[in-house]
Amino acid sequence: MPELMKNRWEVGSEFDWSDSFHILSTLPPILPPTYELFGTGTSALLSIIAHVSQSGRRNVKLHLPSFFCMHVAANLQKAVEICWYRDLPTAPAPDFETLRPDPGDLVLAVNLFGVRSSSPWLDWFQSHDDVVLVEDHSHDPFSIWARHSIAHYAMASLRKTLPLPDGAILWSNQQLELPKATAPASSGAYDKLTAMILKRAYLNGANISKDAYRMLQIQGEQHLGAETNAGVSSFSAHLLNCLNLSELRHRRAANVKQFLQFISSIPNSNYQPLFTSWDVGAVPFNSILVCKNQEVRDALRKYLMTQNIFTAVHWQQPAAGISSDDPMAIDLSNRIITIPTDHRYSYPDILRIAAEVHNFADIKAVV
């Protein structure tokens, strides 16, 4: 029998399959008491738009933050007129002077990177109760803000932070009627589930080509993105109730904190953490760095890729043929980078990731 290959070390990209957290938690449940599930966050948002339009509010507009995922915006723009207001993660709150909705309009409030405070939105909403406020908690679906939402609707794309192939959750603490998915689950969910399983086998050293699961990930994402109101897969719907959600959040928070502590000792002017602290009850999405220019950002991303650390950009614009046309948001999108430090990684992993960021700083210093 041939000797088994050694485990492969890799950071980032899509979640792989793991049994580590697929156990029934004995902790109190933190899911909303009543909710609906969708295949994607975009489907959840489109369902709200259709529901509001059908309830008698015609010609409504949707107000989005200028720092936002343009691929999602492009899909939403097919269903509703989009307006933009300035909201940058480098500021503690949106610029509410740029948010001017008409009565009945939809306003999307986003907890950017999971570190925002709810207070500014609570204050704003008290004097704008004639709009339909929707909160997007995709970067921390179970924060105190999310669990105590006062908005008409709250939603989160669960697959951004949980090891699920698909899934988004929609709820209303105002006890409003919730729209439901009207289409079956996308086949893309099962492509992505297969990719998750194959990726775990690959990382464990199995004789599997990386291209095998990457093609399935891409194909699955394309199929998920093509659905406009798809339901969640039965796999994700059942597994959601078997995840130790509190432990997943605890590990993510600990990893982000460790990474930021490690890089705080690196003297450099090429990049700085977007944030170094957050409110009690919040958990950051990941570790976020802001580089001094796009050249440094792209060089850092390329270097980390050579070290099997695959980072992300949240979010590049213009993209998908759409932009907020906010010069400050566009500039930030060219300089920001997301370092994966979620629940998948151990203390040694985080130390290794930070060391490679440090190595890049040393390289740039001598270039």
Termini, distance in Å? 49 Å
Structural shape: globular
- Roughly what fraction of the amino acids lie in strands? 5-15%
Total domain modules: 3
Give the SSE order as H and E letters: EEHEHEEHEHEEHHHHEEHEHEH
In the predicted model, the low-confidence regions spanning at least 5 consecutive residues are none
Largest sheet: 7 strands, mixed
CATH architecture descriptor of the largest domain = 3-Layer(aba) Sandwich
> What would CATH call the class of the largest domain?
Alpha Beta
How many helices? The count is: 11
**Major beta sheet, strand line-up:** 2-8-7-6-5-3-4
Notes on the protein architecture:
With 367 residues, the chain is of the alpha/beta class. It folds into three domains: 136 residues, Aspartate Aminotransferase, domain 2, CATH 3.40.640.10; 40 residues; 122 residues, Aspartate Aminotransferase, domain 1 (Alpha-Beta Complex). Helix content is 36%, strand content 13%. The chain contains eleven helices and twelve strands. The strands form three sheets. Strands 2-8-7-6-5-3-4 form a seven-stranded mixed sheet, covered by helices on one side. Strands 9-10-12 form a three-stranded antiparallel sheet. Strand 5, helix 3 and strand 6 form a beta-alpha-beta unit. The chain is globular, with a radius of gyration of 20 Å. The termini are far apart. The model has no long low-confidence stretch (mean pLDDT 92).
